[in-house]
Amino acid sequence: MNKKIGILSAGGDCPGINATIRGVGKTAIVEYGMEVIGILDGFSGLIYNDYLPLEEKMLSGILNLGGTILGTSREKPFKKKDNDPIADKPLLIKQNYDKLGLDALVCIGGNGTQKTAGQLAQLGLHVVGIPKTIDNDVWGTDVTFGFDTAVQIASEAIDRLHSTANSHKRVMVIEVMGHKAGWLALYSGMASGGDVILIPELEYDLDRVNEVLLNRSKKGKPYSIVVVAEGIEVPDGRRAGEYIAQSIQESTRLETRETVLGYIQRGGSPSPMDRILSTRLGSYAADLIHREEFGMMAAIRDNQAVAVPLSEVGGKTRLVPEDHYLITEGRKMGVFFGSPAS
Ligand code: F6P
Q1: Ligand 1 atom with least separation from CA of 265
Q2: For atom 10 of ligand 1, which residue has the closest CA?
């Protein structure tokens, strides 16, 4: 009997989700003759039974489309909330999964989603996860789709800030996303000639940062670019970019401006590399379902598509290693990462 599968996207969106839905759906329908439905708005769709049938024609024309045609939400069914009208969301999800006659569920999402997917797998649902996020921080895979596009967007923005910084002889502080990880700041900072790059994985000393900026000014360099990951440690209630920019201006008296790139990093069409990655992971997830390899996350390791047990993924974050080659090479070129190498 042909299988019936559901696909959902959960958590923050990113470029490439639609390409992934297309990759899963087309492979499932064309290669394996499966029936596919789209669950709407992440895990909420499974709680409230919101879904739509995904015929093959609906999967055409979405490869380069940003966002997600299925919608998303940050619903965490295993997180208990006071006064929640639904007492047992995981149980309801299991009942709805059975009622829909699903043979498998594909969960496209970041760390939180993969954790929930693993918990649903433990309840007996046939789950396959696919990692996504601009933060590139999902444990178990070398890369997530969305990241390449976000690096491109952030790098283009930082490129533009060089010229205005130069004209006004300013220090430009740019805050980029990344949650608790520094991948996006590291890659976009290195790709666009950042002079100082601060990431959560490396401690920073503001006095040293100021010293570096003043030295650049003394050497006759008219401006500086400081790329700051949103997840660095700052005093309570302060935004990373705002705090760093204000501290630099107060201590160095160099004119300093701050730019928060924000949600622009998540919007719009995926880069060709992200389309390829999404297509590949989507198609591989359909293969896993066909082979009945459940409780797994489709991942990329050493450029190979592999299946990683969801039980190993949940609750972990993939951070930038302190000896990452971009940090080592950046230091050799005079890029300052907040403190000297230890
Ligand atoms: O996980 C991706 C991400 O873009 C993070 O970098 C950021 O901190 C977070 O989502 C913010 O998203 P939201 O406001 O949708 O929760």
Answers
A1: 4
A2: 12
Count the helix, strand and coil residues of the chain and give each as a percent rounded to the nearest 5.
Answer: 40, 20, 40
CATH number of 173's domain: 3.40.50.460
- Comparing CA positions, the residue from 249, 202, 256, 257 lying closest to residue 229 is 202
Q: Which ligand 1 atom minimizes the distance to the CA of 110?
A: 1
What's the domain range around 212? Answer: 148-266
Q: Which residues are catalytic?
A: 135
Nearest to 257 by CA among 153, 188, 169: 169
Q: Check which CATH number belongs to the domain holding 29 and give it.
A: 3.40.50.450
pTM exceeds cut of 0.90 = yes
Please compute Rg for the chain using Cα positions: 22
Roughly how many angstroms between the first and final C-alpha of the chain, as a whole number? Answer: 60
135 Cβ inside 6 Å of ligand 1? yes
pLDDT per position in the chain (342 positions), as tens?
899 999 999 999 999 999 999 999 999 999 999 999 999 999 999 999 999 999 999 999 999 999 999 999 999 999 988 888 888 999 999 999 999 999 999 999 999 999 999 999 999 999 999 999 999 999 999 999 999 999 999 999 999 999 999 999 999 999 999 999 999 999 999 999 999 999 999 999 999 999 999 999 999 999 999 999 999 999 999 999 999 999 999 999 999 999 999 999 999 999 999 999 999 999 999 999 999 999 999 999 999 999 999 999 989 999 999 999 999 999 999 999 999 887
109 plus 221 within the same structural domain: no
Q: Using a 6 Å cutoff on CB, does residue 133 contact ligand 1?
A: yes
